Structure formats: structure tokens, C-alpha cells
Amino acid sequence: MMAVTIFIYACRTDHLPEQEKYNNSSAFQLTSKTISLNQSKHKTMLVTELEKAKTEFKIYAKKQEYGRSVNFGDDIIIDTENVIYIENGSNYYTYTFNIKREGAPEDAPLENLVLSPLTDGTYRKLLMSYKLTLQEKMALQNGESIDTKDKVTVTDLGNTTLAQISGKTDENCQWVTADAYSVCSENQHYNGEGASICKASVKSKKVTVTLWVCNGGDPVGGGWEYGGSNGNGNGNGNGNGSGASGNEDPCEGNYNEAPCSPNGVLTGPQIPNDNTGTGLCGGGVPTLPNLPDPEEDPCEKVKAKLADQRIKNQFNALNTQQNFDSDHEVGFYEKTTKVNNSNVQSYVPINGTPCSDFIDLPSDTTGITRFGHTHNKYNCSGKENILVPSPTDIMIFIYTLVKQSKNFYGNYSNAFFFHSNIWWKLYVSIHRNFTSTKFSI
Hints:
441 residues; eight-stranded antiparallel β-sheet; disordered C terminus; alpha+beta; elongated
């Protein structure tokens, strides 16, 4: 009989299908996919911007949101494993992160952090708060589009000039939202057509486009929805977005510094502190509501970790009768080092001192993100050792492995710990599923 105890920060499953790049007749068609922060080619810059967001959440510590005060001093969790990446052409993109607050009620608004690139190499940080019903959240979870009109609040976290709340005017300027659509993976449908019409593996999705509009008058007109029935972005009608009148072409005049795109979305980085919307031409920041994924089955998380052949080899090497009968503990740790800006892993075997019931990591724990060891059956005096995880084991996991995972990978999902022994039945313990960047502010 053998017991195994495992602690992990487990990866989360993408809930949006990955959209492939494809050839089409337009240079500006929205595409989206879900990735982790580690997969992003902009990872280094994004990690810096997420750290800045910590400070900016403090600055905007209290805001009025849907008639109630929200304390930004709560513990904030920014999910870095489930990130929505949207492109509009080859030179513009956004990242949308899900935000969770510890202790938030079930009916709390869905909160997202949207990062949009600026010309100085930094990012505009928009806090999107959606007031959605449970049914609407379930629809999103099932891959359906929903109407976000009058349900979203937009706050620019990093700009004192533009840090306004949607629906509140300041010198005839305000955040407004409109709708655009991504194109399906077969380049045939552009208006959110469902499975009954579109047979592509990735369907067209409704995208929320956010604009800072200053029109010299009432910025809210009769409604505009970017992306017409023919998919070229020139359709007029009763769209769900606030902005230019439905009888006007918002791209007429090319008001913005950014090139004009038919879907109303930026085609390149914005100028910092610039008025982002003196017109509605090409000045929009696209996003999709990013929900937290449902909790995974703990056993499936463990299976996924043990499917890694490197971990499996170490696990099998430890689980031998010889190790269990030894007068000391036997183990290994995984150390990550930076080589040419890439993470390189190596496994290092370690042994406890003879006639002991503990095992030590080296004094320098830099880069150590994974650790496994045995609990030997008896000590040299014949006394049976404690076979369950010790307080020291748990402290090592939280204060060493988790910390180093964040330092080297930008998230906690690579932290992994297990111990095994001879007597106990299989016992699995999973740490909370915080595959994310957590700020206590």
C-alpha cells in the first residue's frame, strides 16, 4: 500500500476555441484566441504592465459602480492562464484578463482588465465591469454571444484625463461601446451566425468595441453597430452600440490619428494621453467578456501533471521499497534557470542525512519550482515516522515553490509538490486553483 500527496497550482482549460489565421479579402478582420501569459510573444511587457495595474488599482481605490461603492483594496486575482487575445490586422491587438476578487458574491459584476498597446511601448489599461445575469453568464460559458448594451462600465485605470465612467460626460466626452464581429474560420460569416448557419470550427463572435468619444455635442446618437450584413463594416441600422447616428458613416472624415478600419477598431498602437475618439473612425478597443473557468476535477489536475514524462520518471524513481525502508528521506527538486531569456529546467536528486526524518532544499532556492520526496517508514531507533504532509512540507510549497514559479513564469501554475510513503492509501490534496497573478492590496 502506498500513499501519495500532491500539491499543485493547476492549469485551466481554455473556454474559447483557438482561431487560426487565414487568408481573406480584408486587411482588417477581427480574430480571437485564448492563450496563457506564457504563450504570449509580449509576455515581458505584459508582466510589467500587470505589476503597474497593482498600483493603479490602489489609485482608483473607490469607484461608484451601478449605485454602490466598490473597494479596490480587496485581494485582486488576475488570471494569467486564460487570456483572450484579439487581433485587428497585423499591427494591433488587445489582451483581456479575467479579474476575481476574493470573497465576491455570486452576483458581483464580471470584471476584466483589457490591455491595449500604446506607441511608447506601454499599454492602456481598461477596467471593464459587466452587470450580467446568471443566464447571460451561462450563455457566454456555452460560447454564445450576448447583448452588453447598458450593462458595461468602462474605466481607464492609468490615465487621469481619460479615467471616466461610461455614461458620465465630461466636456461632451465619454466612454461608449459598440458591437463588431469577428470572422468565422472559413471566412464566410461575419455577423455572429450560429451553428445552424455556419459550419466552421470557429464561429463569428460579437465583440465589444470601446471608444472615448468627444463630439463637441451630445456624443450619443441613434445607435451604430460596426460590421454590416455583408461583413464589410459599412452596414447601417439599429445597432446596439452607442456612438454615431445610425444614419452616419463613423469612418467619414478619418478623424483619428490611427488609420481607419471598416470595423471601427484601431489598426495600430495609440498615442499616450491622446484623445482617443474625436470621431468614431478606427478608434475602438476590442474585447470579449472573459469568464472564469469552472473548477476542474482535482483528480484530473493530478493526472495532467503526472502525464509529464519528466515528472513521471522522478515519481517512479522515488516509489521503491528500497527508498521506503531507508533510514533517511530521498527526493528531487526541479530548478529553473534563465538561458538566453528562456527557462531551462533541470532535475537534481537530494538525500536526507542518515537516521533522519527530514530532507532539506539548498539554502539558495532561486528557481526551484517543483519538489518531491519520500517519507521513510521508520527512523533508526525504530520509531515510526509521521507519514502525512508535515507543516514544513506545506510551507515549502507556499513560500518557496509558488513564489519561484511566479518569479520565473509569471504565474503560479508551475508550482508542484508531492511526497510518497508505504503505508497510507492513495491520498491526493490539491491547493486552491489560483492559476493567476494575485495582488493583496
